[in-house]
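Worked example

This section walks through a single chain of length 336. The input is the sequence exactly as stored; nothing has been trimmed or padded.
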Amino acid sequence: MSDATTSAVPRLSVVVPTCGRPQLLRRCLQALMAQDLAPAAFEIVIVVDGPEGSADDATLALAQALAAERPQHALRCLHTGQRRGPAAARNLGWRAARGALVAFTDDDTVPAPDWLSRGEDAMRHGLWAALGGRVRVPPLDEPPTDHEQMTRGLERTEFVTANAFVRRRALQRVRGFDERFTRAWREDSDLQFRLQDKAGPVGRCEQAVVLHPVRPERWGVSLRQQKNAFFEALLFAKHPRRYRDRLAGAPPWDYYAIVLLALATLVSTATGRRDTAFASAALAVALVARFAWRRLRNTSHRPGHVVQMALTSLLIPFLSVYWRLRGAWHFRVWFL
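Given that input, the structure is written out below as tokens.
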């Protein structure tokens, strides 16, 4: 791998956290090595979220092979030592970085050839603490699946670490990412708000583009994503006004209604109040059906997708409420 200690100090450092996805990482690194900046202008810091000698040996082998193929590029590979999440991985990366400007992206993105030069130019001509670039999600299906629709939400996100430029001194000022965000969820919004409070303005650079292709996912990805609600509680605990004004104006009352109606059905059945149990169950089913239809309205109506939406719509309210309340309890905040 390139010897970062003997090369000239780069102007930019690109930090890429990764965990067990060497093929996606290869695609990202190849795009980074095709940037229109001179190789000496930037370094690439890969951070493996996990211990050395684990299943991520393939990642280290990939980094070594690419460094040997492109010796003109400064490329380093670090390990967090244990699974700690992308926030901790990015902290390790930027703290080891040598550039005055740190660019963040993810291992499943494909930065455009002028991504770094556009971002650097925008930072140079403004008093920004940080800039969020543009994320484009290439379409796969029309109409899209629910998973693709959720991924496309990245295109509307104000500041996301799949495409962000932050001055190193600004990161030092706010002490980087909050490592309590152990999933890739809301750690970027938290960083944005703290940068705005303590380091300076955070702007946008639409010309700095990364592609974020939709990844294949196993059945029921929407169920696994409900754990994100735990970290919604943490963000709300830290930034309640901004959370309500800019991210989520109201709690998901329909979820709570479904859960309460399901409990009412069980209690009524156990106490022999069959009419009440039937009414509660019917109303709960109607709310679930409405929720499923909202998810299907602008997405694929292929039979397999329809079945998945119906089944996951039945379970999502219960999982979401569980994780929201667990987050509220854990972070000691009134969060619904």
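What to look for: The CA atoms of residues 43 and 122 lie 19 Å apart.
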